[in-house]
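Researcher: Final request for today, and then I'll write up notes for the group meeting. The sequence and the SMILES for pyridoxal-5'-phosphate follow.
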Amino acid sequence: MSASEESIAAFRHRDDLASIPVYRQGKPAPAGRRAFKLSSNENPYGPLPSVIKAIDSTALTTMNRYPDMHGWKVVERLAAKYDVSPDSIILGAGSSEVITELVNALSGAGTEVIFPWRSFEAYPIIVRGSGATPVEVPLTADLRHDIPSMINAVTDRTRLIIVNNPNNPTGTTVSRAEAEQLLNAVPKDVVVLFDEAYYQFNTDPDTELGMDLFRRYPNVVVARTFSKAYGLAGLRIGFGIGPAPVIAEMGKVALPFAVSDVAQTAAVASLDAQDELEERVRDLIAERDRIMTALAEQGWHVPPSGANYFWLQLGELTDTVAEKLTEAGVIARVFSGDGIRISIGTHEANDLVIDTCAAIIHELPAVADQWSPSR
Ligand SMILES: Cc1ncc(COP(=O)(O)O)c(C=O)c1O
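Model: Predicted protein-pyridoxal-5'-phosphate complex:
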């Protein structure tokens, strides 16, 4: 029995608590030496300059008041941007809250939620938290969504299917044809969530996939966030777009006032700063491509990434490589026995990633044999 089970045993509690995994935050960079936190897919640059200005001048003076619960100033902007009805939009304290609301609204004990695996660490936690059973469909050998197997996993108990595009942590993307194959095969009363936390970094022409599909299929919900490209991870604001009846039910299970006024003001200012945003996204994509090219030249096999991170599939060498990265000051996200996800950082951090990876493959050439694309 673990320590937490021992202590909770003294209280009446849910029988399935022990089955809920614990979310582990990306490690911080250690103080006192040169090290870069590349463990949480954060934007290495601060918030956009115009966003800081907007917060300074308005939001900081309203902290004595509760925020607008529905965040209308953001909802109206998003409705205009995406040309959808405001009742198709819901805000959350990050898209993790939006995803949690969707899972809680649709599923519960005795039901199932299908998602790819390995994928976003929060999915099994959120699904277990609702009382539902996670149905984890392994990625293909190319570390992509296995669409036929996801379709085969659908049962009468299925309440939700999650598509993570680009997939965290592998960076791999889902094509339009694959998404349509899924949507055409599953019952129309099963909701399909497109979690697009990183879509701005996806240079595929289908990068607006989720919104296009929302317009064409009645059962699509899209989750997006201001945490990544917009650089507002610390403020906690994301949003969902979906069929109005689904959004209304999500509202019932939402935590009231979860999205602060500061976050709402920052989100509106971010939407106004499209040019500044695009410049940063272009820079991060160029940096990602620079790292990927350098690693390929060194002999690494890296799956193509459409996100602000990339994945090293390292199997049993994962911990050894993680140690070497940490020693060098590269603080990455380590999935022991499986692989390592490294976020794209500043130019200086990325130089360190490239140099450290060169040293690692020189010392340990077997890292190149742990995975290679099947095509
Ligand atoms: C795939 C994916 N979805 C959703 C989120 C949630 O981000 P946030 O709650 O900050 O919007 C993350 C964060 O890492 C993610 O990787």
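Model: The pocket of pyridoxal-5'-phosphate is lined by residues 41, 94-96, 120, 164, 168, 195, 197, 225, 227, 233, 238 (CB under 6 Å). The longest helix spans residues 274-298.
Researcher: Thanks, that's everything.
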